Each structure stands twice: as structure tokens, then as C-alpha cells.
Amino acid sequence: MRKFIAALLIAATLVCLAAPALASWTGYVTSTGLYIREKPSSSAKALKCPKNGAALTILEEKGDWYYVKYGVVYGYVSKKYVSSKKTSDSSSSASSGSTKISEKTIAELGSAPKPMREGDRGSDVVKLQKALVILGYLSGKCDGIYGEQTTAAVKKYQRAKGLTADGIAGNGTIRCIFGSTSNSGGSNNGGSSSGKVQELKWFNTGYNLMNSISGSFSILDCNTGVTWKAKYINGTSHADVIPASESDYSKIKSFLGSYVRRPVIVTIGGVKYAGSMYLVAHGDKDYCSYFDGVVCIHFTGSKTHGSGNVDADHQAAIQRALKYYD
After folding, report:
1. How far apart are CA 279 and CA 261, in angstroms?
2. Can you tell me whether residue 149 is helix, strand or coil?
3. Phi first, then psi: what are they for 193, rounded to 5°?
4. How far apart are CA 118 and CA 86, in angstroms?
5. CA nearest 75: which of 60, 54, 55, 53?
6. Helix, strand, coil shares of the chain as percentages rounded to 5?
7. What is the DSSP annotation of 12-50?
8. Which 3 state secondary structure label does DSSP give 184?
9. Sign (positive/negative) of CA torsion 17, 61, 53, 73?
């Protein structure tokens, strides 16, 4: 019996030695915006976006997909975007489907594209990429693929404009680049969104202007692109306001409570003024049933109630708002 078991073990060993090993090999990415995905499906979770020309270790084939290793990431990529030969930069550029830029200004690009983010593809992405090239934030190809390069360019633009640098071309970023957006998240109460923003000196004309308002006016939050209507309550050193309705309150509720000074554009009588918003509800008196207290809006030269001084952070946010449509 022992001899029989030993013979089986020897035979199994010989079979294993004779069987060919599944060898891995190196493949190269041939497209910008290719994602390594968790499963062999274009709708599966994206794990990593290797650069065009990056080397992948191909471990296994599964239909139209390769199972690959890229650094410490394991996942699936579509076969059609992987080659056994590394292509040169010129051939990669020629085969990428890049779009030549003939436009010289943002206005020539036409209407604003819809909001988008990394992983998106199409003509809206091309328009965004062209705008970033015109503005000097992108030097890559306008191939309609929202990959790592486009994300990095959007972040660079957002940092320069004082926006949240998340790399997502949301409503606020699209509005800042193109001067308008297809979905602003609220009504634009007053004037064309492509108009220039003006400085409003609080102690010269700002206080009198705010006290002359009857009804509501609009506030555009530059970081998110959300526009809401507000009512002026009072204020000697700066403006204290409340949301004009419960619906307006719901628009700002998600970012209420932020102690960070936020650049805003206040539209009064069709004229846009640069401001800074301190979006924290405060005060002992409630002026409506749906909101507690008031929030502060600062303009050029306005002061805080507590210190009686001009707040440098508010003034810096006002400067960012002044450049919102530039």
C-alpha cells in the first residue's frame, strides 16, 4: 500500500513538472483615461488610472479583459487598450483621438458644458479641456477623456480661483470657467451670469444700498455654484441676512456651519458685487420659523461685530469673488 501511495506522489510531481507554467508578461497602456477596474466590466468600480504608456503586468486573460498588476493594485483592464509593444509618444498622440484647438477665447467655445468628473468622456469633456488649454492650465490633448491630467488641471484652476480643489468640474467650477452653467442649483436672480463683478465698499455705499432693498436678492456661493435668495435684516459693520424662504434654506443647509470665509457674488438690481460669507447661524433673535438667527455677508472694508476690525480672511475671499468670471 505504501509503495502504491509513493508511486502516486511521484506521478503527481512529474505531471506538475511537465505542465507549462502560466507566465505573466508586460503590456503597455495605449490610451489616456484607461481605468483598472475591480471586475471585468466597464461599469465596475475604478481602482486606478495608469498613464498612457504605463507598463502593466498581465497575469491572466478573461474574455475581452486582462487581469493585471499595476504597482500594488490588482484588477481588470480592457484588452483593446493594451499593447505588447510600447508605443512612442508621437504614435500615442496620433492614435488618441485628440481634438485640435482652433478657438482662442472661452466665448468661442459656446455654451457651458454640464458638470463632470474623472472617468467621464465625450464632447463636454473636450469643451472643458479646450477651456483649460486656453486658460493655460492644461497642456495635454483634448481627447474627451476626463483622466488624471484633466483632473490635475482642474485642481490647479480651482486653487488659483480660491475654489475647493477637488478636481471635480462641478457647477461652481463650470460657472467660474464659462460664466454660466446648465444647472446652477438655484435661480439666478438678477443679470447675466457673464457680467463683471464689482467691488462694494461697505462704509461708502454698501450700507445704504443694503438698507434700500425691498424684498429679496440673490447670493451665489462661488465654491459650489449654488444660488439662493436672501433677505437683509440689519447690520452696521456688515450685512446680516437670512434665507428668503425655507426652500432657499434647504439649498445652503448642506454646507451651513462652515467657519471658513466663502467667496460669494451678491446680485442687487442686476449688478453683481463681490462678497464673503460666514455661513454660521448666530444671534439671539429668530426672524423666521425655518432659520435660527442670521448669517454674515461682508463687503470691502466691512468689519466684524466682535472685534470691530476689518477681517483679513473675509477681504481675501472678496478678492477671489472679484476674479470669479475672469
Report:
1. 8
2. helix
3. -75, -5
4. 25
5. 60
6. 30, 25, 45
7. HHHHHHHSPP---EEEEE-STT--EESSSSTTSPEEE-P
8. coil
9. negative
String of DSSP letters for 260-324: S-EEEEEEETTEEEEEEEEEEEE-S--SSSSS-SEEEEE-BT-B-TTT-SB-HHHHHHHHHHHTT
CA atoms within 13 A of residue 46's CA, in its CB half-sphere: 14
The C-alpha atoms of residue 283 and residue 290 are separated, in whole angstroms, by 14
In our burial notation (b when 16+ CB lie closer than 10 A, e otherwise), range 201-224 reads ebeeebbebbeeeeebbbbbbbbb
| Distance from C-alpha of 251 to C-alpha of 169, rounded to nearest angstrom | 19
Cell numbers representing residue 106 in the block: 472661452
Return the closest-CA partner of residue 296 out of 267, 269, 313, 275: 275
Task: Give the DSSP H or E segment for 171.
Answer: helix 171-178
**Backbone torsions φ then ψ of 9, nearest 5 degrees:** -65, -40
Give the separation between CA 131 and CA 127, rounded to whole angstroms. 6
Displacement of CA 210 from its chain's centroid (Å): 33
C-alpha cell of 230? 436672501
Each of the 326 residues of the chain gets a pLDDT tens digit; together they read 666 555 555 555 554 444 444 578 898 988 766 788 899 987 778 788 888 788 999 999 988 899 999 988 899 998 888 888 765 443 333 334 455 688 888 888 888 888 888 888 888 999 999 999 988 898 867 888 888 889 889 998 888 876 778 888 887 788 788 864 333 333 333 333 334 788 899 998 888 888 888 889 999 999 888 999 999 999 889 999 999 999 999 999 988 887 789 999 999 888 889 999 988 898 889 999 999 999 999 999 999 987 889 999 999 999 999 888 76
Residue 86's closest CA among 49, 59, 56, 64? 56
